[in-house]
Amino acid sequence: MILDARDVHKSYTVAGSRTDVLRGVSVSLSAGESLALMGESGSGKSTLLHLVAGLDVPDHGTIMVEAQNIAVPSDTARAELRRSLVGIIFQQFNLIPSLRIDANIAFQAQLAGRYDAQWCAILAKRMGLSDHLSKYPEALSGGQQQRVAIARALAAKPALILADEPTGNLDEDTAQTVLNLLLEITRETDTALLMVTHSAKHAGALDRQLELRSGAIN
Q: What is the pTM of this model?
């Protein structure tokens, strides 16, 4: 089991008013398995993704990634676990403008101490980026930048990929191409994939689908 999140609760209090965002959510993922997380805005999808990534901690419940508790109180400990276990793909790409494409791809792997030049070169080739490695992000199209973001997340060989609307800023044809590449490589490498999406078509390409409604699994 790569991801085992059980009975996860999370609430926020703003101006004295409490909002229960997650109410007892449980999610599991095995190696090489993909899961689409769906739901309306405000249903708790992004909150769950942030908790699984170790960017925040739940009020109640457990979140284990490769049998390690990523919901520890220490920010430093969570950051170290995140670097070693999790790769994150954002809708906004979040590339570093001052770094060339090859350096952007290698960035996360170098932070995690798992940089493999050969693996980075393979990823660049698979993503159709080999001819763009000396360029900077601004010179690439949106679809190409998202491929860089995917390669960066995979370069450190994480056990789990978290993708938050990774095709949300792309046209339909480009989005389908990018999604196909992501699914191919995660399946080949036995990497678990948890993806937030609003697209029923894209969700259907993944192994399983779950819908969040008002902070609970529907």
A: 0.94
